[in-house]
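Collaborator request, handled under Task 6.
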Amino acid sequence: MLIDLENMVGTNPRPPVLRSRVTALLEAAGPCHHVVVAYAASEDDGDTAASVLAALRVAPLRVEPGPNAAENALIRHAGRMQASGCTRFVVCSGDRAFAALADVENTRIDVLVWQGQPVATRLADVACGIRELPRVDKTTTTGEPASVRRQHGDGIRQGRLPAAGRYRLPNFPLPVTALLIGVGIALGHRLIDLALSRGRASDQAPGRRPCHSGRPVRGRVSRSGRAG
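Structure tokens returned to the collaborator:
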């Protein structure tokens, strides 16, 4: 997963904004082999982004400021991964420079951008899918449904992702909820006590012994008068 910080978050973002937006991108992308975020910053600038990204378990890739410095750093990293056999990349940017990844055979590019964010035509042409996410700030909660754009032969169509199924408990008042929980716990304890008492009773029940009359067993007398 490749994140162009300037393109997706901005230059020198505040830590809360950086944290919320990168978190939204990570959740939308799902499991990835690794995530790299590239950004341009000089050594004289206070680099707070590296600490925020490290806390999110994201690899920060800081480069010196320059034209397309962050994009080129990500593309060089992706090229090394392609040489190692990686064929799928999630690109968080609308910059046309990332279209160069498709020059390697069997490479799949999926693009993640914010709603309304422009995507370069060249990148859109080589992307297998372009997914638009709701814009977030430090107060926006993640998990909202996101729209999807997919490239078809007749153009780009808009879709809607289904919201994840959620289960909610009934909205009872707090005293009623506490009473129901207490009743449930008491019933559970009672059932356990009954089960244990029955088990002990069955274990302590005396076994039946074979019944013997104590009388000698006589042999059957045959018609000839001899015992058989």
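The cover message to the collaborator said: "The beta strands are 2-4, 36-40, 59-63, 88-92, 108-114, 129-133, 147-152, 155-160. The CA atoms of residues 99 and 123 lie 5 Å apart. Please let us know whether this matches your experimental observations."
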